[in-house]
Amino acid sequence: MNAMTIGINPGNLQSSGAIAAWTERKVRAALRRFGSRITRVEVHFEDVNGTKVGKAGVRCAMEARINRRKPLAVEHRSRDLYAAIDGAARRLRTAVGRAVDRVTTRAQRTVRRRTAARPAKRVSAGTGPGPGSPADAHRGTVGARVPRAADAGGGGGHVIIAGYGPVGRTLARALGRNGVPVTIIESNARTVATQTLLGRTILHGDATDPAVLASAGIHDAAALAITVPDDAVVCRASEAARALAPEVFIAARARHLSRALRARQMGADAVTVEEMVTADAMAASVAAVLGSRVCRPTPEGAG
Q1: N or C end of the chain, less CB within 10 A?
Q2: How many CB atoms within 10 Å of residue 42?
Q3: How do the domains of the chain map onto residue ranges?
């Protein structure tokens, strides 16, 4: 929510630092789950009764400006300014939620329609069984589509990395060593500022937001790597990216196999499953220990 700004207009009421802090806290808490979709919220106060005594003498109006959509406005009246702010924040959260749900529903329909019309995913000769097979799960990746050589940057577009944590940073370094241009999407404003000073191509935003994906160049990207450690975000980002770019290769991560399969349904081509990778690594460690014991020479004279 760092990208969202809040403007407070007290109107004919006397404002204060406490009221401003209360307003900002309530608005940010109400709209936190919508990420960078909301760029600004305007808050207006008004004493509608003046000196008259009434049941609802204070009006609080809020207007949210949403990426690529018309502003949404709500209001709430109460005897008390703080109660009016609370009520308006709740109503704004509901209104924005409905608007976002409508956009998501339309995107889901687009994904289903394009997926039904899309040809079968490409499988290279050496990938083995098909998507979601036990062999794929054992290797830690669900999915069988393998990008062409041009997709990897040799003759194609850039690679978008969503999330610049440990996984995203390691991937960016590996791609950079191979001369692959990288564009990063990161929600942490401080990270964005630091990496911008270091010369990286990085955008501040939410990878589930179609506008952010478009700004990162999803339409001509060779691949999108979703490295965010949040399965729900991975699924939503996969869906949004697939709706915008039917041919882009989408690689993602998931903590659990069930969520990896869901991400595949939402549009990801290959999903690395953390619990499977962990199991493989532990099995290799145990096998190495057992192998050393089995192969250890038996001292002379031992039974």
Answers
A1: C
A2: 16
A3: 5-111, 131-285
Contact between 238 and 266 (Cβ < 8 Å)? yes
How many other CB atoms sit within 10 Å of the CB of residue 121?
14
Take residue 289 and report the two structure tokens written for it.
């220990």
Distance between CA atoms of 133 and 262, rounded to whole angstroms?
Answer: 15
The Cβ-side half-sphere exposure at 156, using a 13 Å CA radius, reads 22
The sheet carrying 141-142 orders its strands as: 141-142, 270-273, 249-254, 223-226, 159-162, 182-186, 202-204
Model confidence at 300, in pLDDT bands (50, 70, 90)?
low
pLDDT digits (tens, 9 = 90+) for 173-211: 999 888 899 999 999 999 999 998 988 899 999 999 999
Instruction: State the CB neighbour count (10 A cutoff) for residue 139.
Output: 16
Burial of 224 (0-12, 13-18, 19+ CB in 10 A): buried
Q: Residue 35 is inside which H or E element, if any?
A: none
pLDDT digits (tens, 9 = 90+) for 22-40: 999 999 989 887 776 788 9
pLDDT tier for residue 91 given thresholds of 50, 70 and 90: very high
DSSP state of 272: E
Q: Look up the CATH number of domain 131-285.
A: 3.40.50.720
Closest CA to 181 of 198, 205, 157, 204: 157
Q: Mean of the per-residue pLDDT values for the chain?
A: 79
Per-residue tokens: 178: 């191979």
Task: Give the model's pLDDT for residue 150.
Answer: 37
Beta-bridged to residue 47, according to DSSP, are: 58
H/E stretch holding 295: helix 274-295
Evaluate if pTM is beyond 0.90: no
Fold exhibited by the domain 5-111: Double Stranded RNA Binding Domain (3.30.160)
> How would you class 241 by CB atoms within 10 Å of its CB: exposed for 0-12, middle for 13-18, buried for 19 or more?
buried
